[in-house]
Design brief:
Layout: H1 2-21, H2 36-63, H3 66-73, H4 81-116, E1 130-134, H5 142-157, E2 179-183
Parallel strand pairs: 1-2
Helix pairs in contact: 1-2
Length: about 180
């Protein structure tokens, strides 16, 4: 249970750190959060693992014959083969899971880092990028906002020296981010 609580704490603090860094090329950053379904899953996983690794030794302790165990151990203090086999099996299972979990968590991180280095065939060096968020009563309707963006692109394309203009919901690859401007 302590491990589950620590995991939830790390998840919440990880989201906070991600928001603090606020990478400009991460879309919908404000929507990233730890929600109730994540917390319920963490609780269920903690309870399940507690039951799995705690129930077998508890049942074994309840069913054991203390007199037989004392006689069996004698002076040497050795355990029965069955009892030591159960403990060894649980230890092997725990070690196996503790090796698999970091590998499973590391593979998506490694894949994401590799994807950041992939050349996608677009040279965005030197391309100006601008984020515009129309506001005010005039742009409350989606149709008016679409018309604004369409007219904006047409006007930018007609500027001398502009080869092409386009709209995007994220910054072009390789760009550090957008400059921000509100239009009203």
């Amino acid at each position: 249970m302590a491990g589950g609580c620590l995991g939830v704490l790390l998840a919440v603090s990880g989201v906070s750190v991600l928001r603090w860094f606020s990478p400009a090329n991460l879309p919908r950053l404000d929507e990233i959060r730890v929600d109730a379904s994540v917390l319920l899953f963490a609780l269920a996983a903690s309870i399940f693992s507690s039951m799995l690794f705690g129930l077998a030794p508890a049942l074994r302790a309840v069913q054991s014959n203390l007199t037989g165990g004392l006689n069996e151990g004698g002076r040497s203090g050795t355990q029965s083969r069955q009892r030591s086999g159960l403990r060894a099996g649980l230890a092997v299972a725990q070690i196996g899971l503790s090796c698999v979990l970091p590998i499973g968590a590391g593979l998506p991180i490694r894949s994401f880092a590799a994807l950041q280095q992939v050349e996608i065939g677009i040279d965005s060096a030197g391309l100006p990028a601008l984020q515009i968020s129309p506001s005010g009563t005039r742009y409350q309707d989606d149709g008016a906002t679409r018309t604004f963006y369409r007219e904006l692109v047409d006007r930018v394309r007609n500027v001398a020296g502009v080869e092409t203009a386009a709209l995007s919901s994220t910054a072009p690859p390789g760009q550090g981010g957008f400059s921000r401007e509100n239009t009203g």
